[in-house]
Structure formats: structure tokens, C-alpha cells
From TrEMBL:
Residues of the active site: 392
Pfam family, one: CMAS
Residue stretches in coiled coil: none
Name this polypeptide is given: Class I SAM-dependent methyltransferase
Organism: Marinihelvus fidelis
Key words, A-Z: Lipid metabolism, Methyltransferase, S-adenosyl-L-methionine, Transferase
Length: 412
């Protein structure tokens, strides 16, 4: 994983007069922060203490460790802020709270993106364009995230090894119980039967395939393009004694053939990019038998921001999921509607459950930091993952993004 981007304001600050640039950047960022209206930010830099906004919710304290922080934000926007955090340039006593504060004051967030950050935005879009999801590019993009190491994910995921939103039907549920609850819900919404042949696009580490085959007795064919996931999923299926019920492929979804009774895809559509939606849903249609049923679990972006997000790049796309893009509900439904013989029959929002899932992941990740370091991961990597988990949790809690089960049938 890269820890520094050429688009960071840190590089612009390395020009002949960094102190002057730093002063200009500090002034510009502080001017934006003065527009905070909902919530309060306490800013600490050395002996200086400043407060912005109103205390209608608990204040969040941000501590500047390196003055280049100001240039990183002024010339890098939200991506620059993430890069500065990864480099140790600032800390926060409540990182989730900071994300929520900025989302409640979106005018401030957008102001930071429209200032000096406009200078580096074309470069960020170029990086993102390079990561487009051709067959080769998709494998490279998936490997960049999922092939960082199975041992790493196993440290803080639960025993199901599900890396997607659980469903907490009771507040006292453990993470593992909530994941099983979600898997049960998926299978019920698919109306899964013992004589069904289920196709799964996006294996993960085999959790859903193992659950469906063992609990419902169906056959499962599942595919992934991650080498690490394929290896561990194959091992887990063998340990469960389900080799006769589960077939694991290492194929791009565009190369799949045959027809299946049911189809499921869990938080995979975010990886394909918005230009591929029609291709994706057309393939889902062709792979389903007439009368078949499909369920897509998808992380979605708010409708009002979808068009803007299609043509911009954020921290997640730059560092966590290269080539990724969040669909809106209407973008998916419209794409389904363009495919003959597909009818949407269900839409269920589980977004707030994802915020709780992320809280569990974040706490488990923090509890395993010594083990993460023991696997050889750097402090920059650790800070990147902490920032990513908090960034997402805050966004789900503020409903800037959500998670849905989209269910559709193939008519006869």
C-alpha cells in the first residue's frame, strides 16, 4: 500500500517558499472552519487553542502535529487530510465524530474541495482513470485491497469472515451473531430451497457459500478474482466438508456462463465502476433461469450526490478501493429496468446496521494493533486503516451513504 500521494499538498509545500505557502494555507483553511454551524471543533496547535462552530453536540478536538497539515488540506482537500493523517500530521480524540461534524457542515467540506484542492483534482482523476475496471484492471484493483493478507483480515473480522454489513436485530448481539442474522435474511429473501443452484458473484472468504450450502442444502457456485480469497475460501469449504456442494471459481463475472436458480452478490457492485452497471445487470439476467431470483447487497451513495461523485475522487477510491464507485439506488433500479425480463420486487435498507458493524470492526482492529504490527504492517498502514474505518462509520451514521438489499426476479 502506498502511504504518500503525489497529489498531496505536502508536495506543493515543498516549493521555494514553504513558510509563505503554509501561512496562506493556514489562513484559507481557518477561514473555511469559521463557517461551521452544526457542532463544535476545537483546534490545538502547539500552545494555540481555537474553537469553531457551536456546541450543539459534543466538541471534537483536532491536534495539529505538523504545520504542513495546513498545506495538505488547502491543496489536497479531503484526500490531503487523509494523507496528512496517515503521515501522523494530525490526530483527533474522536475521528468518527469529526467525520460526522464535517458531513453535517457539508458547505465547509465542499469549500475545502473547491479552493486550492482544485489544482490537484485533475491529477486525482487521472489516478482514478488509470484504475478503470477492465478485466486486467479489475484483478489489480481487487488485489490492492483484498490481497493485503488473509491473516490481517482474520485478526479483526469474526469467525464468519464476512467483510460486509451485518444485521443487528437485537442491541446485545455479538458481531458473529449479527453476521449470521444477515446471512439468514439474505437466504430468506432469496427464498432459497434445497434443490436450488445458487450463483454467488464475489466469494469473499466463502462465508455465505458455506452458510447457504450447510443450512439450506443447496448447491453453490461462487467466483472471486482475488487470489488470497480464493485460496482461503477453498480451504474453509474443505474444512466444512462441503466440496460436493460448493464450487469455487476464480473468474471475472463477465466470463461466467450457464444458468442458475438464484443469484447473490454481496457488496461487489461497488468495485466495478458506474460505467459497468448495465453490463453487470445484463449478465445477472443472462445467468438467471426464468423464474429465478437475485439479491444484490450494495453500499449506496445519497441520490443528491451521485452525479457529482461519478466524476470526483475521494480518499476511499484513492487509497482503499481503487477503481471503485458507489451506486445510488436509482442508478441500480434504472439499470435493472433497462434489462428485459427483470423486475425489482424488494428494496431493504440496512445502512445503520453497517455503522454498527464498522464500530465492531474498528474496536476489534484497535485491540489487535500489536498483532497487526507483528505481521509487518507499518504505522502508516495502521493509520490509513483507522482513518478508513472511522471515515466509513461516520458516513453511515450521517446517512451520507447506506447499504441496501435490492431483490429482483427474472420473469418467464
Amino acid at each position: 500500500m502506498k502511504s504518500v500521494s503525489l497529489s498531496s499538498g505536502r508536495h506543493l509545500a515543498g516549493t521555494p517558499k514553504p513558510r509563505m505557502l503554509e501561512r496562506l494555507a493556514r489562513r484559507a483553511v481557518r477561514r473555511q472552519l469559521q463557517a461551521l454551524e452544526h457542532g463544535q471543533l476545537r483546534l490545538e496547535e502547539g500552545d494555540q487553542r481555537d474553537t469553531f462552530g457551536e456546541p450543539d453536540v459534543g466538541p471534537v478536538t483536532l491536534t495539529v502535529n505538523d504545520p504542513v497539515f495546513w498545506s495538505d488540506i488547502a491543496f489536497g482537500g479531503s484526500i490531503g487530510a487523509g494523507e496528512a493523517y496517515m503521515a501522523g500530521g494530525w490526530d483527533c480524540d474522536d475521528l468518527v465524530g469529526l467525520v460526522r461534524l464535517l458531513l453535517r457542515n457539508r458547505h465547509v467540506l465542499e469549500g475545502m474541495e473547491s479552493g486550492g484542492a482544485r489544482l490537484t483534482a485533475p491529477l486525482q482523476r487521472l489516478f482514478h482513470r488509470i484504475n478503470r475496471n477492465s478485466r486486467q484492471g479489475a484483478r489489480r484493483n481487487i488485489a490492492a485491497h483484498y490481497d493485503v493478507g488473509n491473516d490481517f483480515f482474520a485478526l479483526w473480522l469474526d469467525d464468519t469472515m464476512m467483510y460486509s454489513s451485518a444485521v443487528f436485530s437485537r442491541p446485545d448481539m455479538t458481531l458473529g451473531e449479527a453476521q449470521i442474522e444477515r446471512l439468514k435474511l439474505v437466504c430468506e429473501r432469496l427464498q432459497l430451497q434445497p434443490d436450488d443452484h445458487l450463483l454467488e458473484i464475489g466469494t469473499g472468504w466463502g462465508g455465505l457459500a458455506i452458510y447457504a450450502a450447510s443450512e439450506y442444502g443447496c448447491r453453490v457456485t461462487t467466483t472471486t478474482i482475488s487470489a488470497e480469497q480464493h485460496a482461503l475460501a477453498t480451504l474453509r469449504v474443505a474444512e466444512a466438508g462441503l466440496q460436493d456442494r460448493i464450487t469455487i471459481l476464480q473468474s471475472d463475472y463477465r466470463d461466467l456462463a450457464g444458468q442458475y436458480d438464484k443469484l447473490v452478490s454481496i457488496e461487489m457492485i461497488e468495485a466495478i465502476g458506474w460505467r459497468q452497471y448495465d453490463t453487470y445487470f445484463r449478465q445477472c439476467r443472462d445467468l438467471l433461469r426464468p423464474g429465478g431470483k437475485a439479491l444484490i447487497q450494495a453500499i449506496t451513495i445519497a441520490e443528491a450526490r451521485y452525479e457529482q461523485a461519478k466524476h470526483s475522487v475521494d480518499f476511499i477510491q484513492r487509497y482503499i478501493f481503487p477503481g471503485g464507485a458507489l451506486p445510488s439506488v436509482s442508478a441500480m433500479v434504472s439499470s435493472v429496468a433497462r434489462q428485459r425480463h427483470l423486475d425489482v420486487v424488494g428494496l431493504h435498507d440496512i445502512g445503520l446496521h453497517y455503522a454498527e458493524t464498522l464500530r465492531h470492526w474498528r474496536e476489534r482492529f484497535e485491540a489487535k494493533l500489536d498483532a497487526v504490527r507483528g505481521l509487518g504492517y507499518s504505522e502508516t498502514f495502521i493509520r490509513m486503516w483507522r482513518y478508513y474505518l472511522c471515515y466509513c462509520e461516520g458516513a453511515f451514521r450521517e446517512r451520507a451513504i447506506s447499504d441496501v438489499h435490492l431483490v429482483f426476479d427474472k420473469t418467464g
